Amino acid sequence: MCLLPARNAEEHVGCYLASVAPFADAVVALDDGSTDATGDLLEEAPLVDHVLRNGRRDGYRGWSDGENRTRLLRAAAELEPDWIVFLDADERVDPADAHALAAALERDDLLPGCAYGFQHYRTWHGTACDPRYRWIYRMFGYRPDLRLVGRRLHFNPVPVEIPSRAWVRTTIRIRHLVADDASAIERRRAKYREADPEGIFGSDSGGMDRAPERVAPWVDRPSELPFLFDQTVEAFSA
User: Fold this and answer.
1) Does 195 fall in a domain?
2) Number of Cβ within a 10 Å radius of residue 76
3) Among 40, 91, 147, 209, which residue's CB has the most CB atoms within a 10 Å radius?
């Protein structure tokens, strides 16, 4: 199951759902006060089982990503999922990576007591990427007693019951779409300034508040690549 927090993401909904469909049997979404058609599009999508809604909000002041993700995790209980994957509306899983993730889940050899990490790449001008990826931990086995860390912004949504020694790295890649030129970076900065005017949580968020030092072409996933990350496997998008 995918859990999706979204706000003013109508341009992303269709491509997002197509991206997660190979490995997600359902999506539970939260429309965080959108002023566009995000909530309605999610309600109409067959893959989306349930849509939570926050009241309409004109900006990002008062935004709590932590509260939104906690609500999504609680709402997932009705569907009794085996696995939870948090992915945002502006993130994509390429088809080959999505099918590799689906195959790993179908093999039933993953450990539900672990949190699994993905390689997070920022796209640049649509067709290239920053080859310096960061690790994000977004997948874990579901239990009804799981709790997320009490942080409002900038955190890995991993339950506190899963210790860091049980965080496992995979070769699954995620593309982040909306910090891919100078104007998009400034919009992102403004969003977080409004959400966090005191600067409590920081603005870096994996380096996406500035242009990349270099870029590289995005490449397809090699068919022989294993699911779990091996230190001998070099970054194949570099």
Assistant:
1) yes
2) 21
3) 91
CA distance 24 to 41: 18
Q: What is the pLDDT of residues 138-162, one digit of tens each?
A: 999 999 999 999 899 999 999 999 9
What letter represents residue 23's amino acid? F
> Does pLDDT of 206 surpass 90?
no
| H-assigned helices in the chain | 13-20, 38-44, 65-75, 95-107, 182-195
Residue 234 has pLDDT above 70, yes or no: no
Residues above pLDDT 90, as percent of the chain? 86
Residue 37 lies in a domain: yes
The confidence band for 207, taking pLDDT boundaries of 50, 70 and 90, is confident
Range of the domain at 123: 2-217
The predicted-structure confidence for 86-136, as pLDDT tens digits, reads as follows 999 999 999 999 999 999 999 988 999 999 999 999 999 988 999 999 999
CATH number of residue 177's parent domain = 3.90.550
Strands 48-54 and 27-32: parallel
Residue 236 covered by a domain? no
The number of domains in the chain is: 1
